[in-house]
Amino acid sequence: DKLESLQKQIVILKWGTDCWKCHKKNLIGRDLQLGHMPWPRVKLAVQCIFMTDYTRPQCSYCNSPYGGQGMGAAATLRMQREGIDIDALWEASQSRKGKTVPIQWFRDKIIEYQATLTELKALSTGGN
Fold it and tell me: What helix, strand, coil percent values describe the chain, rounded to 5?
């Protein structure tokens, strides 16, 4: 829970609170979700689920299996337009899939994300 909370805070600082897939702006509360892009989290290796390269802010509709179903095709196109190598992301996930992830990996990621969050917050406030 702590790792995912830090991940979400970083994603929001990097990409804002607008849905990455539709026109909805300034999402708050339950409507501001961490969407896995361009594949749903169940298709990703455990480590990739918790990596910001695979996540963006998303509204509850776009992130819902009953609504936008993650909007994977649209996410793929947008990521490609932004110069993200989708094939490399997929290969990175597949190379880790099914492998045991030691608890220390999660602890190290929490420390890394705490430092990243501190840096991003300092940048957003002009270093003060």
Answer: 55, 5, 35
Whether 24 contacts 35, CB under 8 Å: no
CB 117 within 8 A of CB 6: yes
If we measure between CA atoms, which residue out of 32, 36, 38, 68 comes closest to residue 52?
A: 36
pLDDT tens track for 51-92: 999 999 999 998 887 766 656 788 889 899 999 999 999 999
pTM of the model: 0.89
For residues 5 and 78, what is the distance between their CA atoms, to the nearest angstrom?
A: 25
**Angle, CA 75 vertex, CA 7 and CA 105 arms, to 5°:** 30
Q: How is 41-64 classified by DSSP, letter by letter?
A: GGGS-HHHHT-GGGEEEE-TTTT-
